[in-house]
Design brief:
The complex is a heterodimer of chains A (423) and B (151). Chain A is mostly helical and 423 residues long. Chain A contains 20 helices and no strands. By secondary structure, chain B is of the alpha/beta class. Helix content of chain B is 46%, strand content 18%. Chain B is built from four helices and five strands, in the order H-H-E-H-E-E-H-E-E. A five-stranded mixed β-sheet of chain B has the order 2-1-3-5-4, with helices on one face. Chain B starts with a helix and ends with a strand. The chains are: A mainly alpha (423), B alpha/beta (151). Chains A and B meet through helix 4, helix 5, helix 6, helix 9 and helix 10 of A and helix 1, helix 2, helix 3 and strand 2 of B.
Chain lengths: 423, 151
């Protein structure tokens, strides 16, 4: 079952990313694509699923035990209940939260309604920031409207639900596929037990889609270590990392941190194949990255974060900023999740239950944890140079940045003790 | 001999700790999902956000506008003064919502464009702001379609 769940998550994740890229490129270079063409692209993509399914290899020997039925029922019921809460949230906020309608769905409307004129509007004519944000989510929403033949808030909300529950399914499916036991259900519960994750996911903003692609990239890299079709999964990880960069500007930091952590851990373990693996990763990444760079260089205005060279130096030298950001990071981590009980405690419960030897860290785990540490450091650096009011910037973004990394942290911790069992 | 008797005890203790940890995880999940339900609330007139009605209100003006191009925008205070206004959040939200509703037309602050949308919270502020403009259509609820007066 977990192989199927994992397959669906990878297949759909890569599929929606490709659909977004195809829609964007066609709209930009030729004009609004007809729905028939999009259906043709989808039909052309489907057979590739067979290759992917076979490449996943056989399901590992089951160690689910008698508790499997109980876990599966509990997990399924809670997913269903949280799904109903997501529908309720949609009924209250059909257009999503502020950034959803002020940026993401607005850009989707420009792409869908604007025809040949949309590019000029994305670039210059919107009052409030985020004009330079990449277009995976808007293109995907617009493509779905095109496929359905009309605009609807339900389509955008459906995509939000796909990424939210897709992340939960990807986490649960990958961990149980890799381990052969019930730990995926437990890790999935940790995500469901993070109210901020569900609220953010159903807000129709791009942070949880980014979290999905970060997790998908890390999962694919992990699988490239243990499955025979190593090169395929490395290239797919590159494609997925490209989609992260096509989702939000933070995706650029994801690329840098992934490569640095891979090179660093590779050299630590004198892993000779590390460079060859990086080339395979880049082979998947480059086509998507070229779309992101084309958008950045030819269409979008420059990013406001790096404006004002002299002021940037002043901010870098200001110790009070470091203190304020450190204090906010600490507070933010303590209050993380918006739940009555911190979901970080859930991670502790998980480790106690499944981490047979939590102090033994495998190279892929070390890479994942190093990657997450580097991501936090890069977010810290961005706050240091931010030209915006620092308190406002932290207040309006820090919890979302943590949520982008939360599923991957859960996966990284959740892998404790897996690779030996699997091999 | 003692080691042999201790090991099963340790295993039992470990097993008990694992079961307690799993029970704690399930308890945490149920508690936080309950919290999520409280945070989301229930769909009711009081709970619904103001985005839907505002966008709906602007749907009335869409058919009266050209399909693309620039549209001017004025509100209770000049747009450049919005950040200084005590109601800046509300005013910014209205501007962004107007852009969202009227896309792909590009909303420009001020009265430089041929057609101007006026979005006001009261008839008094509308009267002041539209003094030098001609009302093409008053759509009610403080929403107006305007143009510059001809000299």
């Amino acid at each position: 079952m977990f192989k199927t769940i994992l397959f669906i998550c990878i297949f759909l994740g890569i599929g929606v990313g490709l659909l977004s890229c195809a829609f964007f490129l066609w709209t930009w270079l030729i004009g609004a694509p007809p729905a028939g063409l999009l259906w043709l692209l989808i039909a052309g993509y489907c057979p590739w699923g067979l290759v992917l399914y076979r490449s996943l290899g056989p399901e590992p020997p089951s160690q689910h035990g008698r508790a499997y039925g109980l876990w599966a029922s509990l997990f399924g019921l809670l997913c269903l209940y949280v799904g109903l809460l997501a529908v309720t949230r949609y009924r209250i906020h059909p257009h999503g939260d502020w950034d959803a309608w002020a940026t993401w769905n607005l850009h989707a409307r420009l792409l869908y309604r604007g025809g040949a004129n949309w590019a000029g509007m994305v670039s210059h004519n919107i009052y409030d920031g985020l004009q330079d944000y990449p277009l995976l989510l808007p293109s995907l929403v617009a493509a779905q409207w095109k496929l359905l033949g009309s605009e609807s808030t339900a389509a955008a909300a459906g995509i939000a639900v796909f990424f939210t529950f897709g992340t939960v399914a990807l986490l649960a499916g990958s961990l149980s596929f890799l381990s052969g036991d019930n730990r995926g259900f437990a890790a999935g519960l940790v995500l469901l037990a993070t109210p901020a994750f569900i609220l953010q996911g159903t807000s129709q903003m791009a942070d949880i889609p980014l979290a999905f692609f970060i997790l998908l990239t890390v999962v694919l890299l992990y699988m490239s270590e243990i499955l025979e079709a190593k090169n395929l999964f490395l290239a797919l990880a590159g494609v997925s990392a490209g989609f992260a960069a096509w989702t939000k500007n933070e995706g650029a930091a994801v690329l840098v941190c992934l490569l640095v952590s891979r090179v660093f851990v590779g050299s630590m373990y004198k892993h000779r194949a590390a460079w060859r693996e990086i080339w395979m990763f880049c082979a998947g990444l480059l086509p998507i990255l070229s779309i992101v760079l084309s958008f950045k260089l030819l269409l979008s205005p420059p990013n406001g974060l790096f404006a004002g060279g002299n002021q940037l130096i002043v901010r870098l030298k200001d110790p009070s900023r470091y203190a304020e950001i450190s204090a906010y990071f600490t507070q933010g981590l303590i209050a993380f999740g918006a739940g009555r009980i911190s979901p970080l405690i859930g991670i502790g419960d998980y480790l106690l239950s499944f981490g047979r030897n939590p102090l033994v860290i495998t190279p892929p785990q070390l890479r994942t944890l190093l990657f997450l540490g580097l991501m936090l450091a890069s977010y810290f650096a961005i706050y240091i140079i931010s030209p915006y009011d620092l308190h406002w910037h932290l207040r309006t973004s820090f919890d979302r940045l943590l949520l982008q990394l939360w599923p991957t942290l859960t996966f990284g911790v959740g892998c404790t003790g897996i690779s030996k069992e699997r091999s | 001999m003692t080691e042999r008797t201790n090991r099963p005890d340790q295993m039992k203790l470990m097993r008990a700790a694992q079961i307690i940890a799993l029970a704690a995880l399930v308890f945490l999940t149920l508690t936080n999902i309950y919290e999520l339900k409280q945070l989301i609330g229930t769909p009711s007139a009081a709970n619904e956000d103001d985005v839907g009605p505002y966008v709906q209100r602007l749907e009335r003006v869409r058919p009266l506008l050209p399909d693309s191009g620039r549209i001017g925008y004025i509100t209770d205070v000049p747009v450049e003064n919005i950040p200084l206004s005590p109601h800046s959040e509300t005013l910014k939200k209205r501007y962004a919502l107007t852009q969202y509703a009227l896309a792909p037309r590009a909303l420009r602050p001020g009265t430089d464009e041929a057609i101007i949308i006026g979005s006001f919270s009261s008839s008094a502020t509308a009267a002041v702001a539209t003094k030098e403009l001609t009302v093409i259509r008053d759509l009610g609820d403080g929403l107006m379609l305007l143009r510059k007066q001809k000299d």
